[in-house]
Specification:
The chain has about 450 residues and is α/β, with parallel strands linked by helices. The chain has two domains: about 110 residues, Urease, subunit C, domain 1 (Roll), CATH 2.30.40.10; about 300 residues, TIM Barrel (Alpha-Beta Barrel). It has 15 helices and 18 strands. Helix 11 packs across helix 12 and helix 11 packs across helix 14. It is globular. About 55% of the residues are buried. The model has no long low-confidence stretch (mean pLDDT about 95).
Length: about 450
């Protein structure tokens, strides 16, 4: 059992309370007591404002090696993809582990307590499995365990190299290691992956470009049968919509609906280029939407209809995706600020709504029931933000939450607690030398 005294805490829906005592036991919050003026003996003091831990719903950990190497150039998503493939060629289980561990360490320092790793880098370069077919996935799980954060490994089915008006294309040379050959082979491999105390196994369909309708239905059935999360890249680029319309006569969202994949278990990642009917289908099903604004703007993907999706009934969550930056404050405010650019109106998403995207909605998307809130019975995950930085100086109780959402950065995070245990203390990870490990891991796969 551990006890934490919070100088102040956000308890949801506008509630910022001073002097909050949080007791934890067996990884859960056992009590929340307000009005405690000073930390009692034995309590860990959390100075600043404490929030539920952040969920980074969409990550490709190995993309962290691309930071600074792809962002300044011209081109499109497709030219960026070729640069991404170059890094993927250099990865094996050992380098994958090192890069993921360092990347998750950066996430922890940014206040991320749970990550969804959208994982499709499965096999050797020629497509043959490693002696352990799940060597890459297990390396990622081990990396998260070492850092101390929660992970949902969203193991992705990836069967085709693209979609044209004439049908699906074979895997390209750089894509062969992504594929399992069939949805059945994918499912058989997945059965060997084991969850852990802070690890879950979920399912993913890479996209309708890479997985055919029959296989999508199989993956969705696997997730449904195991009550596991199901994620999919959806309409990130307008080209995907055009290809799907040309071959199937419907949008990617319509295709998912036709095979029964649209449920409240699904999270659609990006969902940038949608029709009104698409928005109605997603919202009507209660499907979640993971927006990744820093990646979407970096790749010139466009601005997704976040306001319309939320109004239709889709809970929104956030991801740092390609890790151009890892900063959940930036992802949260970007949803609202991008919406202002698209609609020329302010205030579509309120402060509490943006915080919910970074916390409770993200935990829901990743299958972590009871996460992203601070109340008895919840997962004991919390992040503390200093209020005395130059960015937040002058923030008071009634303005603290708006100041944090619209001005804070990852550098303002001081402490992170996951499952009741300290992971970051006073801006330092307690067990991982993050900066040096990042430098070495990136150098290993780019030099």
């Amino acid at each position: 059992m551990s006890t934490y005294w919070c100088e102040a805490a956000w308890l949801g829906r506008g509630q910022v309370e001073p002097g909050i005592l949080i007791d934890t036991a067996d990884g859960f919050v056992s009590a929340v007591v307000a009005g405690v003026g000073a930390p009692p003996p034995g309590a860990t003091r959390l100075t600043g404002l404490t929030l539920p831990g952040f969920a980074n719903t969409h990550s490709h950990a190995f993309h962290r090696a691309l930071r600074g190497r792809t962002h300044a150039g011209a081109g499109t998503f497709w030219t960026w993809r070729e640069q991404m493939y170059e890094v993927a060629r250099r990865l094996d289980p050992d380098t994958c582990y090192a890069l993921a561990r360092a990347t998750y360490g950066e996430m922890a320092l940014s206040g991320v307590s749970a990550v969804g790793e959208f994982h499709y880098l499965h096999h050797q370069l020629d497509g043959t499995p490693y002696a352990n077919p799940n060597a890459m996935g297990e390396a990622i799980l081990a990396a998260a365990a070492d850092v101390g954060i929660r992970i949902t490994l969203l193991d992705a089915s990836y069967l085709h190299g693209g979609l044209s008006a004439d049908g699906y294309l074979p895997l390209e040379e750089d894509q062969r290691r992504f594929g399992d050959g069939s949805a059945d082979a994918w499912a058989q491999r997945l059965e060997e992956l084991q969850p852990g105390p802070r690890a879950q196994i979920g399912a993913a369909v890479h996209s309708v470009r890479a997985v055919d309708p029959a296989a999508i239905a199989e993956v969705a059935a696997w997730a449904e049968g195991r009550e596991a999360p199901l994620h999919v890249h959806l309409s990130e680029r307008s080209e995907e919509n055009e290809q799907c319309e040309a071959h199937f006569g419907c949008t990617p969202t319509g295709l998912l609906a036709s095979v029964g994949a649209l449920t409240d278990r699904l999270t659609a990642v990006h969902a940038t280029h949608l029709t009104e009917d698409d928005i109605g289908l997603l919202g009507g099903a209660g499907a979640g939407i993971c927006m990744c604004p820093t990646t979407e703007r970096d790749l010139a993907d466009g601005i997704g209809p976040s306001g319309a999706l939320a109004a239709a009934g889709s809970p929104l969550s956030l991801g740092s995706d390609s890790h151009a930056v890892i900063d959940m404050f930036e992802e949260a405010r970007a949803v609202e600020l991008d919406e202002r650019l698209a609609t020329l109106e302010r205030g579509t998403h309120g402060v509490d709504d943006l915080l919910a995207m970074a916390t409770v909605n993200g935990y829901r998307s990743l299958g972590w029931t009871g996460g992203g809130i601070l109340e008895p019975g919840a997962l004991a995950d919390m992040v503390t933000v200093a209020l005395d930085s130059v960015r937040l100086a002058g923030a008071e109780a009634e303005t603290a939450m708006a100041s944090i959402v619209f001005a804070a950065s990852a550098a303002d995070v001081t402490d992170l607690v996951v499952a009741g245990e300290v992971v970051v203390r006073d801006r330092v990870h307690v067990s991982v030398d993050v900066a040096s490990e990042l430098a070495e891991a990136v150098r290993e796969v780019t030099s």
